[in-house]
Amino acid sequence: MSFAFYFLLGLLQPTQTVMGSWEITNGDDRKVLMIRDNYFSISHFNVTTKQFFHSFGGTFKYDGTKASIVIEFDTKNADNIGTKHEATFTSANDQLTFSVLGYGATWKQTDNGNAALAGNWRISGRLEGGNMNSIPKRDRKTLKLLTGNRFQWMAINPVSKEFFGTGGGTYTFVNGKYTETIEFFSRDSTRVGASLQFDGKVEGDNWYHSGKSSKGEDLNEVWSREK
């Protein structure tokens, strides 16, 4: 079955979780898996050459031994969008073993997904013309998935199977300052390596985010947790 995860080895440890970020690296060539709040993504890129190769992901419901997955975006093959799959995992210590769409073998954990901003966020408001305009839920959406120290945003439309862009890397959030360091960007590789700092605060299920965009433009947004 395409996109199927295949059981390989080991036993799932009851104290462990698949949440967080995981990597397979070969020099600067990196494959990153992110899982948090019923969403996942896998991205393949090279930091040194600033190449972006592939990213895909979607909804993810995990019961402790297996996950039910629906693909919401795929930068290479739109035909995969909307397909449903059941994934079985095995983990031991800081390693997760599975194979999916040619991305497989053993993944090494880089964070456990625990942080104040960790979660799956959807943009819900943007300051325009001095007014904070709400962005209602609709087919086209922009999500930002964060684990303990990694982020990825994706602009997608799962209904029309359109993909508009994605980017990601590492982040820190200290004393109200949110800093992103870009490691891949599907639309503009020259942004790779840049660090951007924003003011941020979380109130309930809303994340208030302001500063300068990667284009140097003023940015003031509200992101809300996807549920």
Describe the structure.
The chain has 227 residues and is mostly beta strands. It folds into 2 domains: 20-111, Lipocalin (Beta Barrel), CATH 2.40.128.280; 119-225, Lipocalin (Beta Barrel), CATH 2.40.128. Helices cover 0% and strands 59% of the residues. The chain is built from no helices and 18 strands. Strands 6-5-4-3-2-1-9-8-7 form a 9-stranded antiparallel beta sheet, with no helix packed on it. Strand 2 and strand 3 (39-46) form a beta hairpin. The two termini are 29 Å apart.
Can you give me a brief rundown of this structure?
The chain is mainly beta and 227 residues long. The protein has strands at 20-26, 29-36, 39-46, 51-62, 66-74, 84-88, 90-92, 95-97, 106-111, 119-128, 131-134, 141-146, 150-157, 162-174, 177-185, 195-203, 206-212, 218-225.
SSE order and pairing:
Layout lengths: L19 E7 L2 E8 L2 E8 L4 E12 L3 E9 L9 E5 L1 E3 L2 E3 L8 E6 L7 E10 L2 E4 L6 E6 L3 E8 L4 E13 L2 E9 L9 E9 L2 E7 L5 E8 L2
